[in-house]
Design brief:
The structure holds two protein chains of two kinds.
Chain A: H1 18-22, H2 37-69, H3 77-80, H4 85-102, H5 104-113, H6 121-130
Chain B: H1 25-65, H2 72-79, H3 83-108, H4 111-122, E1 128-129, H5 138-141, H6 162-175, H7 185-197, E2 205-209, H8 217-223, E3 228-233, H9 236-248, E4 254-258, E5 271-277, H10 287-298, E6 299-309, H11 318-324, H12 326-330, H13 336-339, H14 344-350, E7 359-364, E8 391-398
Parallel strand pairs in B: 1-4, 2-3, 2-5, 3-4, 5-6
Antiparallel strand pairs in B: 6-8, 7-8
The chains are: A mainly alpha, B alpha/beta.
Chain lengths: ~130, ~400
């Protein structure tokens, strides 16, 4: 193996940040596919989240299969599980919180439609600046 | 639970070797998601692209121009405004970027361990010849090919192998397993064709140009164990990785050498067989004739040259050529579109091969069908996916025993 004289100037593996390197963009102008570049970014984020959901689902599947194979529960026990009233209430509560977090923006849009309209923030900035005792 | 009869590919089934990046449960799940997403895009979303063309884009074009689109460029400009095509393209591009991110996040977190393994296999080996004076040609640095950040050549650390490890880890995802457990379905296809078509052909010296991680040179070296294989590339990280990979697979008859195809470090007539696999579309109009002249020069009389590529556009319907062109415009394969217009027969004649020596055949990846599915489009009723499917045109020529001008 011949040596490369330029190698001395390069960092060692302990000096790199794997996350920064993983997210490095490829050289070359990225084509724009959709008419709105913002929508394109949201699509890209949504697909990354979709991937992570798939990863989480697969991990849960592994856990269930391990629990079955170790005799902790039987294969149909997850399917036939009936939450009691308290468990169902807790789930419903969690489910409401979850959905309202995800759709917060829509709720707040509706709140903004009712009641007095907020003035532009610039107006408030000016108002507070110009207040005199 | 019943055993599925159809092959169910998973990244887990990839063959391991000493420098394979090791993936956690969740990293495998991420690779497998992207593999399934690629399959879904080509099998369930892509048919709609052709449908959109037939039912709305082409009729709208005809209404304006009074004729069909004349070539792939007219098809492309018309299709770029179609929402279904836009979404399919955006998803396909994004999946490629996700695949790169996923591969790199696996590789760089364990780069120290991988490099140590590569070092132990590469240290002092005569069969790895790096040459710091070799610079990457413009066609390898203009953009990062197939959205692979840093391309094949960028070194993030000393004695880097990261680019090779990421490329190796991700081939499975991009091709949805269709290249087989060592991603060597191309090299294996070349071997199978050679053994069937020329059973008496026993090359003693083989040259593979643009070898990257040697995944197609390894099956050649295994098929001809008495041959000496020289695998060249301009990029050091893939050569280091490829050499360690081949060594750990017990393949010791390949010399990995840093060199350009435009200036092969070999005497005239040194090789009986010169191969490339999916190489020419990553070069340039200037490089192609230079490299092919070198192929002719280093071939021995009676020797053969054989190249795997996607099919040329000549005689192809504009829509199919447009679809095959997708990678050129959307996946950083800038020479893909011009390369597929080249008259390869004429190129070989200009490079010194006799008129009539050129031949062309088709091949598909040879893989273990118990583990990996047949490529899309290879079976009746299945969906053509225009360019990713490992079904290739192979072209080549034999150099006459007696040189004739």
């Amino acid at each position: 193996m011949s040596t490369n004289p330029n190698e001395n100037r390069l960092p060692e593996p302990g000096d790199i940040d794997p996350l920064v390197l993983a997210n490095r963009r490829a050289k070359g102008k990225r084509p724009s596919f959709l008419d709105d570049p913002a929508v394109e970014r949201v699509l890209s984020i949504a697909m990354a989240v979709a991937a992570e959901l798939s990863v989480a689902r697969e991990r849960m599947d592994t856990l269930e299969r391990l629990l079955v194979s170790k005799g902790i529960f039987k294969p149909d026990e997850v399917e036939s599980y009936m939450p009691d009233a308290e468990a169902q209430a807790q789930r419903n509560q969690w489910g409401r919180e979850y959905i309202s977090r995800v759709l917060r923006m829509l709720e707040q849009d509706v709140q903004a439609m009712s009641g007095p309209q907020d003035p532009a923030l610039e107006q408030v900035i000016d108002e507070l600046r110009d207040m005199r005792a | 639970m019943s055993t599925p009869t159809a092959p169910q590919p998973s990244w887990r089934q990839l063959g391991e070797h000493a420098v394979s990046p090791r993936a956690t449960h969740d990293e495998v799940a991420r690779f497998d998601f992207l593999m399934r997403l690629n399959l879904h895009l080509s099998q369930a979303v892509l048919p709609g692209v052709k449908q959109a063309y037939e039912t709305r884009v082409k009729p709208a074009f005809e209404a304006v121009h009074g004729r069909e689109p004349a070539d792939r460029h007219e098809v492309r400009r018309a299709m770029q405004k179609d929402l279904h095509y836009q979404l399919w393209s955006a998803l396909r591009r994004n999946t490629m970027e996700q695949r790169q991110q996923a591969g790199r996040s696996v590789v760089y977190r364990q780069l120290g361990e991988l490099r140590a393994k590569a070092d132990s296999l590469n240290e002092g080996a005569e069969t790895l010849q790096l040459d710091a004076s070799i610079t990457s040609p413009r066609y390898a640095t203009a953009v990062d090919i197939h959205c692979m950040p840093g391309n094949y050549h960028t070194e993030e650390v000393a004695r880097d192998i990261g680019a090779g490890a990421n490329y190796d880890a991700g081939l499975f995802v991009t091709t949805a397993g269709a290249l087989g457990s060592y991603s060597d379905g191309g090299g294996q296809a070349l071997v199978e064709w050679l053994k069937k078509t020329y059973p008496d052909f026993k090359p003693r010296r083989i040259l593979d140009i643009g070898c990257t991680i040697g995944h197609n040179a390894v099956p050649l070296a295994q098929a001809f164990p008495d041959a000496q294989v020289v695998a060249i590339d301009t990029a050091a990280p893939v050569l280091r990785y490829g050499h360690a990979r081949a060594r750990s697979l017990g393949v010791n008859n390949i010399e990995f050498r840093q060199a350009a195809g435009e200036a092969v470090p070999a005497a005239d007539g040194e090789f009986d067989l010169v191969t490339t696999a999916m190489f020419w579309h990553e070069t340039s109009s200037r490089a192609m004739p230079k490299i092919m002249k070198e192929v002719h020069r280093v071939l021995a009389p009676g020797g053969m040259t054989l190249h795997l590529e996607q099919p040329q556009y000549a005689g192809m319907a504009p829509f199919e050529a447009f679809m095959r062109d997708w990678d050129a415009y959307n996946n950083n394969e800038p020479f893909w579109t011009a390369m597929h217009e080249f008259d390869l027969d004429a190129l070989m004649v200009q490079s010194g091969f006799p008129v009539g020596a050129y031949f062309e055949t088709s091949m598909q990846a040879k893989v273990d069908r118990r583990l990996f599915p047949a490529p899309t489009g290879s079976e009746a009723g299945s969906q053509e996916d225009y360019g990713r499917t490992p079904r290739w045109t192979a072209f080549g020529a034999r150099k006459p025993e007696e040189l004739s001008q």
